[in-house]
## 1
Amino acid sequence: MMTTARPFIRGAGLACVLLLGLTACGSSGGGASDGGASPDDVRAALAEGGEITVWAWEPTLEQVVEDFEAEYPNVKVNLVNAGVNTTEYTALQNAISAGSGVPDVVHIEYYALSQFAISDSLTDLTSMGAADLEGAYAPRPWAAVHQGEGIHGLPMDFGPIALYYNQDVFDEHGIEVPTTWQEYVEAGRALHEADPDVYIGADTGDAPLSTSMIWQAGGRPYTVEGTEVTVDFTDAGSTAFAETWQQLVDDDLLAPITAWSDEWYQGLNDGSIATLVMGAWMPPNLESGVPDGAGSWRVAPAPQWEEGANASAEMGGSSLAIPSASDNKELAYAFLDYALAGDGVQTRVDAGAFPAATAILDSEEFLATEFAYFGGQRANEIFAESAANIREDWSWLPYQAYANSIFNDTVGQAYVSHTTFAEGLAAWQAESIEYGGQQGFDVRD
Amino acid sequence: MSTSATTTRPVGTHRSPAGRLRQPRRAADTARQPRRSVPLTLLTGLVLLYALVPLVWLVINATKTQESLLNSFGLWFSGDFAFFDNIGDTLTYDDGIFTRWLLNTVLYVVLGAGGATFLAVMGGYALAKFDFPGRRAVFAVVIGAVAVPGTALAVPTFLMFSKMGLTNTPWAVIIPSLISPFGLYLMWVFTTEAVPTELLEAARIDGAGELRTFFRVVLPLLAPGIVTVSLFTMVATWNNYFLPLIMIKDPDWYPLTLGLNSWNAQASTVGGEAVFNLVIAGSLLTIVPLVAAFLLLQRYWQSGLAAGSVKE
């Protein structure tokens, strides 16, 4: 320590010099110059080359970036994992507020798109060529990237829901795989009676899951017209969800384990959690995180709220968007086009992603894919059917990320206390309305 | 953790033999041979267990494959002995990014914690041994700064640094790490005790300049305090999470804390690969340097803790 004191003086001096030198060269801020560019401008930008930064946590993009750089050697793409969902949104919000460090392309889930679009933080892609992509994507994700006027991102993947279940556990106890939610409750009861260590599902309160269930049941708690917003969790769909989950929680049929935790993976591996309701993007996670379940798990259509119906909803799904503060929008769009409408789509599908592009969704090859993990099952057929049956007209709040963050303090109470789901939803509604009002929206119930 | 650390020496005992003779018998016993107390021993044992169990858990689980991790009892070995595979995979996964994170962390610690220690030593010495106007004000500011958690300053610092264009560079982590109010305060108190003013006067009379006095006379005397402060700042920088989290977005500049967290997050990322075994092996590798530093610097550290508790 003592002998190294001298170099430290130099180090400290250097730091001060840098500090003084850099105070003078602030960033140029983030003025927005929305849209306006044409497909020709995009092609010109691609020919000219340059460097763009992409914030995304989607692992399949690594290969896409490599291929893109190989095809266009004069373009450099810095792919940065700036965190998953809310972590990244916070970082993006910080960068936008600070006016520096904003990426050229950013990965945003559908539920969070509107909060960035509404503050004009995203570029309208219509004139750059996105207008010609009508029909290139499944209807739901295509609707999701349209925020009021304009197209604020291109769909990357989406999550039609399905029921993933452990066939071996059901066979062992001679229980039928449920096709309605009422059967699901009964199957849960039968499983738990047959083996007290086995639960039909695991849930400690999960906003994406609950909103998906309400969506599938036909509930429409949110409506958004410009800045006029309604939040109403008293409709039939929301009530159906509340009643069913109330039964599951009252009878202790759900394992009190939070999704994605280590304990959750453990339960999936040892067969104590028998089913999952997740989006069609789940298989790669099962393969890497639940190796013991290989060959045991299968996919089925999500249980129905009405006997014989085929209603579906979405859970998760995301887009790539271009922040208004990017100063390389044309090149950024060229990358978007390649990754989400060009060769990149197939690359991502080969790596296990579930695409939003109809060219793939409708292709024989895709539908005929046999999943070794699911014992050779053609799972994509079930996913594609679910995708076709997603109920229309669902909207997210323009501040959904915040609403989701308070879910566990409100509805989450129903899992751990005497609060009922109906009361929990009412509390969630009240707090969402209050926050929306503070943010300058005209919110009613 | 002040320098007047309590010892078991009863008040009034003295180191001179004459003093000892005058002591009542029991006090002499406690000074040399403390009585054994069963409840205290049990309590210490419990605390020791509490501190060691996580470490033991980490070592045990670093030997398991991902499958055994998820289907075996946590506090005992199970399945194949995969320790060396795990370490190997940790170092090679993602093109060996772990090594890069390790080197980043070392860089942040050497420059950040090293610089913080050096500044604290210089500042502490100046405040302890020089009289200048505004000294009391400095004291008030330092004490105030100790009370402000670093996390509270992270966001304002981010906004300031982004104006300077320093975010997403190593400087964004190193520069804030250079400031350690607690270290300054500790060095100040320590210097007051450990450096006799007479010695400084003697050095000046002998014609040594201020810098020479500082490096040749003062620094050796301060060694225990310097080690104490450098351990503090080193641990703080090594484990720093929030500051790099908001400052750095480029994985190439991540410290280990952020890197391991991003690996852990893969399990909850759509299409991500769960790598629990690498997170655990990586965590084990992450604490090895800290453990080594503590073991190597223990001697100084202990004398530093007890300094000033006895009037020589």
Note: The radius of gyration of chain B is 24 Å.
## 2
Amino acid sequence: MTATSSLTLPQRRRGSRSSASPRFARRSLNLFYVPALAVLALFTIWPLLNGIVLSFTNWNGYSPGRSFIGLENYGRLFADPIFHTALFNTFIYGFGSTLIQQVVGLALALALDRAMRGRNVARAIIYLPVLVSPVVMGTMYYLFFSYNSGGLNDLVVALGGERTAWLSDSNTAIALIVLVNSLQFVGISMVIYLAGLQSIPVMYYEAARLDGAGALQQFMNVTVPLLQPAFATSIVLNLIGGLKLFDVIQVLTGGGPGYSTNSVSTLISTAYFDNQTAGYASAMGVALFILIAVFTLFANTMLNRKRLELQ
Amino acid sequence: MKSTLPGLAAVAVLAVALTGCSAGDDGGTTIEVQTNLGATDPILEVLAEVTEAYTDDHPDIEIDLVPATDTYEADMKVRLASGDVPDIWATHGWSLLRYSEFLEPLNDQPWAKNFNPALAPAMENAEGEFFALPLDTDVAGIVYNRAVLDAAGIDPASLTDWAKFDAALKTLADAGVTPIASSGKDSWFAGNIPDFMGSGGFTDEEFQGFLDGEFQADGYASLLDEVAKWQAAGYFNPDYSSATTDDLGRALAEGKTGFIMVQNYIVGTALGFDPDAELGYFPIPSDAGSPFLVGGEGRAYGVSRTSEHKQEALDYLAFLAEPENLSQLASAIGGIPGLTDATSDLGVLQASYDEFVAPGDVPLLPYFDRVYLPNGIWDTMVSTTDSIITGQADVPTAVDQMTTSFDSLHGQE
Amino acid sequence: MTTTITEPAGATAERGIRFTDDRRPPARPRAGRAGRAVGSIAIGFGLLVAIVLQLLPFYITVTTALKPRSDLSSQWVLPGDEWYWQNFTTAVDRGHILGAIGNSALVTLVSTLLVCALGALAAYPLARRTSVTNRLVMVGIVGLIMVPPLSILVPLYTMMNQLQAVNTYWGTILVMVATQLPLAIFLYASFMRGLPLSIEEAAAVDGASPVQILFRVVFPMLKPVTATVVILTSVAVWNEYALSVYLMRSPDMRTIAPAIGTFFASSGSDLGAAAAASLMSVVPVLAVYLVLQRYFIKGMVAGAEK
């Protein structure tokens, strides 16, 4: 069993008594979660509820005055093409990054699970960007992509190409944002998969080999099924991170050109602080929260359809 | 051992509680001055120098000059929203329209008699109150490199309408110079283009229409059509998206760029790269009337109405307002002083000042968005112009976005 | 060890791997030595590409940090004759980077300790008492993992200001704890559910109280998941920007990410100094990680003996 067990929501198990708590788990045990809940209630839940209240007002974000305008902000969400662009981008950032991170992360984990010289150094280097603040990472890549002095264009010119304005075209810019985010956090997926791989007892592989299974069959019949919990954890964590994406976009493109690379998060910040439509921004915040919750639950349910129990 | 964790945490929290109380309770008075200057801005150094002279005379007062992040406006809004208001803060052009409800009126200050009358339209309300000490007066036009225009045989004073300006752009393009430059990276730059054009780019009925809450889509579209024309002709700098103010300053100094539509601080940036660069500005062309300059409040600092140290803060502002101090600050900015008893060294811009500002025949118009558009639309202006310059959207789409933003913000006011 | 099984109605759970499957495909000949060598070379090459890609931004930043603003040579080129350290002194003198590293270290250390302690405490009843209330609490906590920081910023900051918690270590620490707790509770609870009940039941039969069971029996078994929580929490807190930038306002209280943010101020952005500051901010985390690396991946695996 790995510590990175997958995101499984507690739910009734069919055919078992639903509250079959062990005898020693008395009611008073619940006191243990009171301190944590108190912190969460004050610093997360209360502001969140306040934000929901704000979403029904036309507050500009700094003046004392505000008035209730009912569902108007939510109506605007449905009609606002800029929000739709941001929503679409948010999906691209979320799913695009998650996909790349799983493929590359698993490949790296498999490669670095083998006994070889320099394995730990390689793992550390792959994981290194995770340790860096996304603001810093975005800055580093901004230097690299810039038109005149950027290393990427120097390389393109050296190879006989033309200088390119990488961040002027919305499609290129979106692709680069996905790439930067994926590369930065691929280390997380790699480590989760490494942990998962190391928790698979060697005897299964030995048994499979004795049965004459080749490398591919071992991978399909032993590795993949036994990595289920790791898959679930990695996918869900990456998905939440990708759908919340903010810092990297702010630093690399600021949501531009035009509005074309905004995610919902960056659009919230724009609506809050730049457009002085804090009420509308709060409505977007509520929508984003619901969106992330729905997708995470959906992904989680799909991934937990088939879980293995190994005894 | 895991079981020692809670104990450890408790000890750590206690240690923090004992050592790390909130900053700055040391008996004396601390006045927080929230600047809008970056940590490495040379103007901040000059301000710190002047401030040091003040604290030498007032040892019981500490002045905390806070550098800004690049999200200064957002930071200020959050602070105002939550009641965490600095004693003094930089009003960056908005002392009247955005901040006056939070600021102390300053028209009865001893230095108020020297308030530069050119600033009155932008900074005074109907009662004649103003709310910030103006370090300089903002006067802006289209910035250019004299050597580049001379080489191309262009006289900037002759560019009185957009057709002539377009011809000049073509001449520069043929000469292998980037005709006009802006920045998509620094997210305020592009908005200046329609904002400068707009100040003198509408008929009187259209201006009245804006004030009545009707977005003048056709008039605005004609401004953006001009920008779209430049984009289609390839007149903008190819590094537009990644270029920063620094990059543009360098290009201007090195004679790689003809025109930039931005305030004169770009000149200071350019001189940092080449102190001998010959730079100037000229009035903005107009098809609706005569050429004009735009301007109003430059760098200015106001005092919070609710400050606990209001008297000390006002006293510090009065010190900044002393002629030699204000002259020093205005010279550092390279701007026309905000008070009439100060002088400043305009340096390389003296020639443009003498030609266009001093005679007083070129109208100095307020910024279009500050008078005719609702508070909060600026970012939409920047983004929509950005989408035209990068060719990511067509003019009707951009105008639609402006209309939507205009209507919803008007509904909010 | 096991993970909990949740089976939606109608789903058939595969029970482990059955090695006596008659429909197994016939064994194929194993790949020869040459094939394996080619495979190794391909894997090595792929790894090399990945490593170069991951080091690239750091390299670019190093070359940028070591050059004055007037140096226009390519980012690929290290300054040849003389390294320019002025950017680093600028970062230290003007950006308060060393102070910011100290602030971040303190906030990160205390927040991480609190997250581990509160998280482990909170997870135990949630893992071991399956009442309707506890299920709802757990669902709520998992839901909080998904709260985007931006959606709570303004209400949170307003409240912090009323509590006089802005610009204080304790205020920032509590907010950081709140943002990181949900994931920590979740990880602890999942892990605890995977622990065999029999040990705790035996202790209960021996007359231990629930508190004694928790502290003497359960906590010592949590080392692996604690390593995971420590790494995830400390990295997240160290790098937090969106909220810290508002909670720590004065230059001498700033944590590291907002301190670097000041270098991108709207006037006079100084990329060399920003690059230098960025590098300095990475060094402490990197050092800690290198020390912990030996335990890190081991720590994410519970009792797997390879």
Note: The domain at 52-309 of chain A is CATH 1.10.3720.10 (MetI-like fold).
